[in-house]
Amino acid sequence: MTCLTAIRRAGFGSIVLPIFAWAGGVPTSPMPEITVTGQIEALQGEPVSATQGVVTATQLEHRPLQRTGEVLEVVPGLVVTQHSGDGKANQYFLRGFNLDHGTDLATSVDGVPVNMPTHGHGQGYTDINFVIPELIRTIEYRKGPYYADAGNFAAAGTVNLSYRDALDAPLVTLEAGEHEYRRALAAGSTGLAGGDLLLALDYSTNDGPWTLDQDFGRVNALGRFTRALENGGFGITVQAYDADWQATDQVPQRAVAQGLIDRFDTIDPTDGGSSHRYSLAFAGRGAAGAGAWDALAYAVDYRMDLYSNFTYATDTARGDQFEQADDRRVYGGKLSWTVPARITAGPGALQLGLDVRYDDIDAVGLYGTVERVRYATTREDDVQQLGYAAWASLDTRWNGWLRTNVGLRADRFAFDVSSNIAQNSGTEDDTTVGPKLSVVLGPWRETEFFANVGQGFHSNDARGTTITVDPADPATGVLPVDPLVDALGGEVGLRTAILPRTQVSLALWQLRLDSELLFVGDAGITEPNRSSRRTGIELSTIVTPVDWLVLDLDLAWTHARFDEPDPVDPAVGDRIPGAVESVAALGIAVDHPSGWSGGLRFRYFGAAPLIEDDSVRSASTTLVNLEAGYRLTEHLRLAVTLLNVFDSEDNDITYYYESQLPALGSAGAETAPVADIHFHPVEPRTLRLAVTASF
């Protein structure tokens, strides 16, 4: 979708999209406020690419959600799944990337970054379970590395969720469903000291359809004070999140096929985890000479303990369960200045920015466990990671049909690792500079054309930059990896509103990564991989046949390959495991004057290679979710959500690797590892009922 998606997710009433989300947001382009009146007869805004968009709260209001992470599926082509308990970060797929838990997709909430570098479970770990969907005002997304204000993890794109400053009226939502799903939300705002105070408390539990109750419990709390001033404003936001759960990891296909377990069973019933995230953020903006400044400062206290067992019993005496722990404090800030800058007769704007982030990780560890009791330490590290950047962006309108945006960003990182294995301790640093260029032609007959190129990057796990020996076998040497991995991307695209009440965007893109090196938290070691190239095409359409009905369609195809031979075995294929090749999503949103409202979502993501030679592939997955609601009175709404309408038995995610089964039922234990498909099924058809009262 395009930035005109400001409209796309609207369709009802009048919606205002502030491009500068001052209460915690980060300015992304020198664009004026856009007002949408429920029509899509003309192009809106001035995006710099065809794959940049803003999704409004209106669409989210009528979107059926199974889990919080699915709010990110408003990004066209993005697939959100889960493979191990709802308290764990989701699995993300976008532009031919298996993003794991967030690598190469920079995600933030009111500008505060969510991705966790050098994380106990996975580099760039992105857990948005702390988000309260009803409080989201907008979701801004930008694909590709074309934006100077976007840094680490932004190779495939960026997503920023912005909260509301106030609610029209206090509300209470009570929700219940099958499998002991319960949720209660209370939220409201009031005037205070010339500003607005927003408070919210969200509690939910869910056992899920699993043979072993998931026993997922979550508490979210938010307090937010914002105040507008004559030339700007400021906001202070406090958030708290706590969760714990029993894991429902992927299961081996052979065990299900042999009738040893059900597809909703588990192998190790003691897997699970807990996590918390507490944060404080201050955001402000104001006038500065002829321009304006935006500032953000934040602090985050984060902890996670995760117990997993993916290979089951290769250790026949104790089993293969392990614990991953992460305990850190994060401090950071952003400062930018936007000023008019004309180099032609047309308007222009210059943005200058500074970013800084410091992760103080007290302990990031990997331990051998039996029923959540530690018996061995594979590795345990204290890590200090500092990253800081300077960037500039110049937006120029040369004439009535030509506009350019030129950007430059420089990032520097410093790593300090203190490991329980002395040989793996050390310091490392690295710098990367990324130029950006966007050219926009038009509009002609409500049609614009875009060309973009830019360099982005992601950081590798700090422990991988100083590693010299294998933590599981200190007698074995290991080569350290480069701290930063560059990504070069480009795309051409268009957006058009030439058809009545319809807007379409089309983009052809390519992205090359210098290396797909990743630190594997499950093993405590760096896994080397080759450079890669991804090419794709994306088509998005939105139609409003009548004011109370919005239809949208997103299609994406990707060709992903390693572009050099394997250095160890040249006969190994060139497929990238987990690279989903096709994605389709169809949505219907209704808000009828009679009081009926709701939404239907169809989501399809296609097959993917599971190993490099493409001899083993995952199957495609199709899901349909439905929500229908009716406003009983002005202050009371009833909604019914039906998830997985057609009771699909597809899989949320599929892997291929070796595992060794313990004794199950009447079957004896396996005596050697077996290569097999391991999958996590989509949840069966599930009914939920919600009542929302406003006051």
Question: Would you mind describing this structure in some detail?
Answer:
The chain is mostly beta strands. It has a single domain (5-161, 286-306, 320-694), classed as TonB-dependent receptor, beta-barrel domain (Maltoporin, Chain A, Beta Barrel). Helix content is 3%, strand content 56%. The protein has four helices and 39 strands. It has a 22-stranded antiparallel barrel. Strands 3-9-10-7-8 form a five-stranded mixed β-sheet. It has a three-stranded antiparallel β-sheet with strand order 4-5-6, with no helix packed on it. The chain is globular, with a radius of gyration of 25 Å. The two termini are 36 Å apart. Mean pLDDT is 90; it is low at 1-39.
Quick description:
By secondary structure, the chain is mostly beta strands.
Secondary-structure blueprint:
Blueprint: H1 5-8, E1 15-17, E2 34-36, E3 52-56, H2 57-61, E4 79-81, E5 91-94, E6 97-98, E7 105-109, E8 112-113, E9 136-143, E10 157-163, E11 171-177, E12 181-192, E13 195-206, E14 216-229, E15 232-246, E16 251-252, H3 253-257, E17 272-288, E18 291-308, E19 322-340, E20 348-370, E21 373-397, E22 402-419, E23 426-441, E24 447-459, H4 462-466, E25 469-470, E26 473-477, E27 484-496, E28 502-513, E29 518-520, E30 525-527, E31 532-546, E32 549-562, E33 582-591, E34 596-605, E35 621-633, E36 636-643, E37 651-659, E38 674-681, E39 686-694
Parallel strand pairs: 7-10
Antiparallel strand pairs: 1-2, 3-9, 4-5, 5-6, 7-8, 9-10, 11-12, 11-39, 12-13, 13-14, 14-15, 15-17, 16-38, 17-18, 18-19, 19-20, 20-21, 21-22, 22-23, 23-24, 24-27, 25-26, 27-28, 28-31, 29-30, 31-32, 32-33, 33-34, 34-35, 35-36, 36-39, 37-38
